Amino acid sequence: MNLLRILTLATVAIMSHHAIANNTIDPLPSWNDTATKKGIIQYVQQTTNPDSMQFIPVSERIATFDNDGTLWAEKPVYFQLYFALDQIKAQASQHPEWKTEEPFASALKGDLEGVKKSGMEGLVKLVMASHTGMSTEQFNASVKAWIKTARHPTTHRPFTEMVYQPMIELLHYLQDNNFKTYIVSGGGVEFMRAWAPEVYRIPKEQILGSSVKTQYEIVNGKPTIMRLPEISVNNDKAQKPLTIQTYIGKKPVIAVGNSDGDLEMLQWTKTSSYPSLALLVHHTDAEREWAYDKDSNVGHLEKALPLAKKDSWTVIDMKQDWSQVFPKK
Amino acid sequence: MNLLRILTLATVAIMSHHAIANNTIDPLPSWNDTATKKGIIQYVQQTTNPDSMQFIPVSERIATFDNDGTLWAEKPVYFQLYFALDQIKAQASQHPEWKTEEPFASALKGDLEGVKKSGMEGLVKLVMASHTGMSTEQFNASVKAWIKTARHPTTHRPFTEMVYQPMIELLHYLQDNNFKTYIVSGGGVEFMRAWAPEVYRIPKEQILGSSVKTQYEIVNGKPTIMRLPEISVNNDKAQKPLTIQTYIGKKPVIAVGNSDGDLEMLQWTKTSSYPSLALLVHHTDAEREWAYDKDSNVGHLEKALPLAKKDSWTVIDMKQDWSQVFPKK
Q: How high does pLDDT run on average in chain A?
């Protein structure tokens, strides 16, 4: 065998191996082989192929994800509320008045129905008492400590294991294809920044959410950012595209949500001059997760479903499209 | 000569070449060989060397730059004001009442002194009339069109050539060493995003500034973000560290400014748990640029200078430290 023939055979072998690798490494192994998965993969392949008419330059590959109900579960209530309740309990000894004052009295008894009775006003009181009056550093530390030990009330798993495995795969698939992935959530931005970077592989500066007002103070000679008991931005509904424009200054080409609170973000994304992908998670799996839409206390989904049809969004049917929901234990 | 000796000589030759290359490519050619330049280079070399005690992980290499007076000039007045005046002139035919109404009447005559007489309130009126009432897309297009043709009133150069060549080099040097460079300016965020990405090699999402309120609207069936005539964030002084925390969620390790408006940003940066670098540009060069500090209408610099000494900031003396100020024509 001459040298040329050896080299040719080696080249063919290397190229075949490469081709097989490309076809057999499934980027979304927890997704069933449905039209949804095929559509996502086709979108990514086309928009990242420089020879395709659908090509999107790297600088414009912005993908925005809602968090609650989209990246992790949100039942029985938003997980951030459990943090608030646990903080209230931890601070109770310094607040004897909470024993008789609502919503604190119900919160201390772990009575969520009682808390609900004090309505949105009561909820805001709980959040303010547990989320403000400290520096951002202190708040960050308290969330980090809590998320290590807190457990989901029905599955008893850490909240960071209540993330959707198919979504983790989608995030990584997009990241590997040079999409810049952002969280654009109604959840508190500093609450998420304390744990989400490790869980989702998304840096703090790509996590956007609701926020409280802050103030720059010199405390004991040390510059400090204090969290004030006043909402600055409620990052829901029409605020989501506004937050995206303010923080990123670019229109996303991919947006992923699960509720009417994400409607405007998905609608805005579909007006991109580039090919765009709007994904709407529909919670249809009462067995492995929860089944809910328009009658739910969280993740209310009513207006966005008919719009999804009209505006060519892709509805992710959790039961049909996902072979696995949560990460394996 | 045996093979080993040839290989050894070749290796030595390659290594020497590498060493020479490392030492002779000056990353900051427009900086004089002063302690300022040496300090910057030493800082970057140490903090990017994994074997150094001063090493900073890539994810924490956040560098924030003021814009007006730090990256580009700000005399005789902030350049964004010339944009406002030109927009007012362009819109005058639709506003016959401006002929007699201040500050518009003075603006239309190009009488800056007259504009000044109507104070901050007048200035805000000019900015609102020229910067709001349109979509972000329309505003972006009008800034892009203006910056192509507008000229500085005394140097007659395009405003994008009124940038400081040494600062462009510093930005690129930091970017090449995996520092994430941000603009954190009192200037309008959407005004800067229309031209700064090309000029500074900083993507839109790393440009933070002052902003007006916005509103999500469906205009003729098309989702649109409209700019409203109300200031949302005045990104100056203590607001700068708050904006950094809100947008980035990390404390910078490098901050660069030129006025008392940057004091808190530099002070905040110096509290980093990593080695930090605070740079304060002092405009000392009446010949090549302008010489000003505490008596100036822009870039007021008074409190920050003594703090720079006390808090180990590096003062950049424009006349002493820069061999070239603006890019060559």
A: 94
Q: Is B243 on the interface with A (CB under 8 A)?
A: no
ipTM, interface predicted TM-score of the complex: 0.92
Place of tokens 């990246």: A71
Most A CBs within 10 A among B216, B240, B243, B264, hence the mutation to make, goes to B216
Looking at residue A297, its pLDDT comes to 87
**B248 contacts A205? CB cut-off 8 A:** yes
Per CATH, is B29-76+134-321 categorized as 3.20.20.70?
no
CA distance B246 to chain A (A): 8
pLDDT for residue B183 is more than 90: yes
Q: Please name the member of B205, B214, B222 whose beta carbon is closest to the beta carbon of A271.
A: B222
Residues of A whose CB is below 8 A from B264: 216, 223
Q: Which of B214, B222, B271 is the closest to A223 by Cβ?
A: B271
Contact A216 B203 (CB under 8 A): no
pLDDT at A21: 47
Say whether residue B138 is in contact with chain A using an 8 A CB cutoff.
no
Report the CATH fold assignment for A28-76+162-321. Rossmann fold (3.40.50)
Cβ of A207 under 8 Å from any chain B Cβ?
Answer: yes
Tell me the pLDDT tens digit for each residue of A9-50: 555 555 444 444 455 799 999 999 999 999 999 999 999 999
How much is the pLDDT for B6? Answer: 60
Which pLDDT does position B9 carry in this prediction?
57
| Residues from chain A contacting residue B212 (CB–CB below 8 Å) | none
Interface contact B249-A211, CB threshold 8 A: no
Instruction: Tell me, yes or no, if A250 comes closer than 8 A to chain B by beta carbon.
Output: yes
Q: What is the pLDDT of residues B246-291, one digit of tens each?
A: 999 999 999 999 999 999 999 999 999 999 999 999 999 999 999 9
